Amino acid sequence: xxxxxxxxxxxxxxxxxxxxxxxxxxxxxxxxxxxxxxxxxxxxxxxxxxxxxxxxxxxxxxxxxxxxxxxxxxxxxxxxxxxxxxxxxxxxxxxxxxxxxxxxxxxxxxxxxxxxxxxxxxxxxxxxxxxxxxxxxxxxxxxxxxxxxxxxxxxxxxxxxxxxxxxxxxxxxxxxxxx
Length: 179
What we know:
Elements: E1 3-6, H1 13-22, E2 27-29, H2 30-39, H3 41-51, H4 58-67, H5 69-88, E3 94-96, H6 100-103, E4 111-116, H7 119-130, H8 133-140, H9 146-149, E5 155-158, H10 163-177
Parallel strand pairs: 1-3, 1-4, 2-3, 4-5
Helix pairs in contact: 2-5, 3-5, 4-5, 7-8
């Protein structure tokens, strides 16, 4: 049984995944794999090339993503295939994949859990993370909304409630899936 965990930025995916790991389930995170892929010299060189700079910084990439939708597509063509290959080679029960729907890899999993806190809470969380509501709104415009991802859900986990309630719900469902 392989369960994909997806949802938008700042909606609680990592928190849910951390709780599952603490409960003894095996996990894999595409974000962690993306960091490894990012550090590869060949990837750095390709990204620098599409940015038109000699050296890549995360800030420059983030600004380019917000400013130019075409840049995001070029970046994704470099990174996504590598990330997906690494992720699917990882033996786990739960896989955190924020861009599951965007990369069209749903069929590689037995179940899809969509993590969501609702648009208002998501905006608040992201604004706190990025330092302002304007930047948060700009970033959210670059992503597929969680409402769209709900169409792919076998289970919806709502994280706009106390962490204890979220954890209890998640652990009940996980124990049913892995009997």
